[in-house]
Write a structure and sequence with these properties.
alpha/beta; Hypothetical Protein Ychn, Chain: A; 5-stranded parallel beta sheet; globular
Amino acid sequence: MKKSGKKLAIFAHSGTYDRLYQVVTLAVTAASMGREVYIFLFFWALKRFVQDGGLETMDFPPEYGEEGRALGQRIKKLNPMSLQDMFDEVKKLGKIKVYACSANVKYMDLDDEKVRAKVDEVIGLPVILQMAEDSDVQLFI
């Protein structure tokens, strides 16, 4: 596939499975199309990304009720590859970069070393904004 040279910036804020699923599947799709992908992690998305098994817990917002549980079962049935495995496999292509917001690492009381082991870099808002500005598409999830 021809390289597109385009960049996608995803601002990941929410830590519920449906939102993280959207972050990962959009990133994986864009990377497989040749785009560079920047995922900027904030608050609960950051916490879930750096937790061991954080992308595997299928939790949905309470307002989803029983439909949330049913949705989780359908996702597992239709896509047997786990979210973490899918992400890890495509990340090997080198098109996806994951960044943690330095302030949010502190806000969420996360261990700096553990965060740095799970992301490409911990950066501040000025750098995040510059990278997003240089991207063709920016999404907030």
